[in-house]
Amino acid sequence: MVDAIELDFERPRKRLFIALMSLSLIIVALLGFGVWRVSYLGLREISSYLPTIIGGLFAVAIIFTGLGIVSIVGAILGLPFFSIFQRKTYALINALFPVAVLIGKIFGVRRRKIERSFVAVSNQIIHQQHIKVKADELLVVTPHCLQLASCPHKITRDPMNNCKRCGQCDIGALVTLAEKMGFHFFVVTGGTLARQTVKKIRPKAVLAIACERDLTSGIQDVYPLPAVGVMNLRPNGPCYNTHVDMNLVRAEIEEMLIETNGNSNKTEEKENDNG
Ligand code: SF4
Fold it and tell me: How far is it, in rounded angstroms, from Cα 51 to Cα 54?
């Protein structure tokens, strides 16, 4: 079904996100330095050590953030990701993201493009860690808009039993895949329900299908849980009868699962594809 859909996506460029994050850091550093210079005399009046202490702390924060960005670049290039930065990366991204969006706006870069670039960078970092979990430790969540709007079946509570797999939307294919591979699959109506589902299932890894905005906030929300994002396809506009590239979803899931007899699907699928 997806093959027939015209994909309006450009390839996400990881370097866009990196460039904007670096620029954001430079701007924050310059602004911070300006504020420090202006307040220098005032700080000195309070204590002669205060300008040095505050300036030093700020410099350490900037250097640490800079090294975090260098570490992300390294991970994209295939170098090991230092665990000290790994833990702080999403906190750094959270802090700098609004500045990056603002700079993007000045240069005419749409927020959606920046978010897409972030998801690509985040996926690359996760791939780089070669995270492997058992099928029942993986949670796949997808938004409600993936369901055919005219479908009468209530699938948010129990897609595995309530979807009739009529083939009119991608939910059916995901239910079949979940049954075959053994991962948890849920359809959620928003970020709150997604977070509740993560709390309830307590997975070790997440694969989320959503638009770039929801993926960006979702990936940062569930951190330190590793979450791979797959962008939905929106041939009918946002939030209405959306689709997903099932080949991409399957490939991402296979990448995350420990191969067992129950989920050694690469070969199975290939065999099936070959008839
Ligand atoms: S595949 Fe499932 S969710 Fe989609 S239209 Fe058919 S019954 Fe409804």
Answer: 5
